[in-house]
Amino acid sequence: MAKIFKFTPGSDTNAKVNVQEFITRCREDLDVFGPEVNWDSNFWTGEVGFIKAGVNPRKVTAADLLSSDIIPFAKAYVAYRKAHNPSARDPARSIVPIRCIEPALLKIKKVADISLVDPVVLDHAAAVARECYPFSGNMASSELNRFVRFLLDHKLVDR
Predict the structure, then answer these.
(1) pTM for this structure?
(2) Could you identify which of 65, 81, 83, 100 might form a hypothetical disulfide with 125, taking C-beta atoms 3.0 to 4.6 angstroms apart as the criterion?
């Protein structure tokens, strides 16, 4: 049986500390993908690639990867979602909001630090979703909403 845990953020810690704790716990305490998935790889065979929005997954270069600042969180989030919803249709769906938020963070905050997500970043992320996922806008919007609720509920952003 896979190991899982329920992440409980520190009540007296800031978002950056909670994000780091979340990443560490997911990396060390989750084993939902099995031995064929190497945590350090940017492509989890049969699961997901940590690439930017709008990139053709068949023609990926190093420049097409998500920012190295956000990849550890992206891996933790994908693993956590899979652990808590193993019957989910496609674990790759959980990366969609991160792919939309990453360029927004880089444009607005100049760094892909998930703890810096705010309403302005989310507004830009929604525009990225409309541009990069025009035929699956409802899915992208739904995943973005779920992601924002996750960030707020787990104190991964400062309010």
Answers:
(1) 0.92
(2) 100
